[in-house]
Design a protein that fits this description.
Layout (H helix, E strand, L loop, with lengths): L2 E4 L6 H10 L3 E3 L2 E3 L5 E4 L10 H13 L3 E3 L3 H10 L14 H13 L4 H13 L3 E3 L3 E4 L5 H10 L6 H7 L5 H11 L2 E2 L7 E2 L5 E2 L2 E3 L15 E2 L3 H4 L16 E4 L15 E3 L1 E2 L6 E2 L1 E3 L12 E2 L1
Parallel strand pairs: 1-4, 4-5, 7-13, 13-14
Antiparallel strand pairs: 1-17, 2-3, 6-7, 8-11, 9-10, 11-12, 15-16, 17-18
Helix pairs in contact: 1-2, 3-5, 7-8
Length: 302
């Protein structure tokens, strides 16, 4: 089976439809399918930010229901479940309702006004989305593949976000908290010089995202493996630090990191497909059969 693997969409349904058509998919009874029986693998983050969130969810879920696609959970789908699930034991919800959380989720709330029953159906679907998918020739995860986390999930996760799982996730330092934070949001590094910075949404951060996909030979100074760290800290030598290094013969595809420009492959075993469509970037796909060729960058479609 050949797959077309698509990165973060964030409610950009028009761009999604254009990409699907470029890949050869066509509408039949309102659902996209491929004449050669290809499938799409969606990498999460279908909601928030974009102008057509409802339309995006209908496209993605309809394809999944018809067997024409598979989809994994992104951090925005996980956050939405937490935001809308009451914590009956402690009060409130499993995600805070402060300005930051409401602002991040606002476009979704606005676009589903008047479609509350429909939104509940999508929320229930989010709860059942897998946290990762592994095929014979590739893997898919939203933000970071860490074998120890994946192995724990294989043994302990019940293939659905239950109340017990959400309650454990909300305990700082719990295994569930660590695994979700890193699998859906990525590895982080705290600069030892106390650096702070503001992310794309203007939120102050003390942790830098780790480019865990960076191969060992490209790791010389900290800016080689950290996103948005200061120049002073970034120029420090890494030394023998091999933390967060992805080593596998099986390629993993992921999204989440808001890369810019045209897609390139820094490590042919770990390929990011998020090129910031929600920030005037591009929606990107990769054709899985190109994993077998020498020039894998030929597999990008955008």
């Amino acid at each position: 089976m050949n797959y077309d693997i698509i990165g973060d969409i964030h409610g950009h349904a028009d761009e999604l439809e254009m990409l699907l058509q470029k890949l050869g998919y066509y509408l039949l009874n309102g659902i996209y399918q491929h004449p050669e029986g290809r499938k799409v693998m969606f990498l999460g983050d279908y909601i928030d930010r974009g102008p057509k969130i409802r339309e995006t969810l209908h496209i993605v879920k309809n394809m999944c229901d018809a067997g024409n696609a598979e989809a994994i959970m992104g951090n925005h789908e996980f956050n939405a479940v937490c935001f809308h699930t009451p914590d009956k034991e402690n009060g409130g919800f499993y995600r805070k309702h402060t300005f930051t959380e409401i602002n991040q989720h606002f476009e979704t709330l606005k676009q589903f006004k008047g479609f509350e029953t429909e939104w509940e159906l999508f929320l229930n679907w989010f709860k059942k989305l897998p946290l990762f998918i592994e095929k014979d020739h590739f893997r898919a995860v939203h933000a970071c593949w860490d074998d120890k986390h994946i192995n724990w999930l294989k043994k302990n996760y019940k293939e659905e976000l239950t109340i017990d799982f959400l309650a454990n996730f909300n305990i700082n330092g719990s295994r569930e908290n660590e695994i979700i934070e890193e699998t859906l949001k990525g590895k982080e590094h705290i600069p030892t010089n106390g650096d702070v910075f503001f992310d794309k949404d203007g939120i102050e951060r003390k942790e830098c995202r780790v480019k865990w996909w960076q191969p060992l030979e490209n790791r010389i100074i900290y800016k080689d493996i950290l996103m948005m760290c200061s120049l002073e800290y970034g120029n420090r030598p890494i030394g023998d630090d091999k933390e967060h290094l992805y080593i596998s013969n099986k390629t993993v595809f992921f999204g989440h990191y808001w890369l810019k420009g045209n897609p390139v492959i820094k490590n042919d075993k770990a390929i990011c497909l998020d090129y910031s469509v929600a920030k005037n970037g591009q929606l990107v796909a990769f054709k899985s059969e190109y994993l077998k060729v020498l020039n894998k960058e030929m597999g990008f479609i955008y």
